[in-house]
Design a protein that fits this description.
Layout: E1 3-4, E2 7-8, H1 20-81, H2 88-91, H3 95-98, E3 115-119, E4 123-124, E5 129-136, E6 140-146, E7 152-154, E8 156-158, E9 163-169, E10 178-187, E11 192-201
Parallel strand pairs: 4-11
Antiparallel strand pairs: 1-2, 3-5, 5-9, 6-7, 6-10, 8-9, 10-11
């Protein structure tokens, strides 16, 4: 140690050379540091992988929610407005197919005939006769007229016009009433169809009848 005026200075001590034991200790400390770094790196890598998997799962859940959102929105809007949602896939199907019921084939013999009846006179008088006309489908073989009394009359087929005709006598005591007449058409398979036509009956005009007279002399 050198002495200088006014004070004393110290020289820095030089590092001692490493011995065998020192080198072994340093190697052990360096190995632990490297192992710790490897472990830390593995932990960080695992965390990154876990974060990536978590982010992918959240993304799929968001996509599923977004896909189902329109249907949920439509259902909520329909419930609020009081309108039932309509399945667009079944909207263009016939009623049987939309309900899941397969349509069945129908033979021509199983169908009933068709018929329409008409009366030329709008208003009739009691005791008068009216003609009732019926137009039937080609499979019609007979047409029958019925009234409230239970009477039955058969129509006659007019080949020239292709119509069925019958004359009906209006009951005498039906003034001011409306008579309902049934027209029933049948085909060869026994199928039938019935329609109705109506007659409005007017009252007879009053006729002045002279009063009874009594005389004792010659008339």
């Amino acid at each position: 140690m050198n002495s200088i005026r006014g004070g004393t200075t110290r020289q820095a001590a030089e590092p001692l050379p490493l011995t065998g034991a020192g080198m072994l200790q340093a190697a052990r400390e360096g190995g632990r540091t490297l192992l710790e770094r490897v472990i830390c790196g593995a932990v960080v890598m695992g965390l990154l992988v876990a974060a990536g998997l978590l982010a992918g799962g959240c993304g799929r859940q968001n996509e599923d929610r977004a896909a189902s959102a329109p249907h949920s929105t439509q259902a909520v809007a329909a419930s609020q407005s009081g309108v039932q949602p309509v399945d667009t896939r079944a909207a263009g199907m016939p009623a049987g197919e939309a309900d899941g019921v397969a349509p069945t084939s129908v033979s021509a013999d199983s169908l009933p005939p068709d018929v329409a009846a008409s009366v030329l006179e709008g208003r009739v008088l009691p005791g008068s006769t009216v003609e009732i006309t019926a137009e039937g489908s080609p499979d019609v073989v007979a047409v029958t007229l019925g009234d409230r009394t239970g009477g039955r009359q058969l129509f006659a087929f007019d080949a020239s016009s292709g119509l069925w005709r019958v004359a009906y006598r209006v009951p005498v005591r039906t003034a001011g009433e409306r008579i309902a007449l049934s027209v029933t058409a049948r085909n060869a398979s026994g199928r039938w169809r019935r329609v109705w036509t109506f007659l409005s009956v007017e009252s007879k005009p009053e006729v002045d009848v002279p009063a009874d007279s009594v005389s004792t002399g010659n008339p």
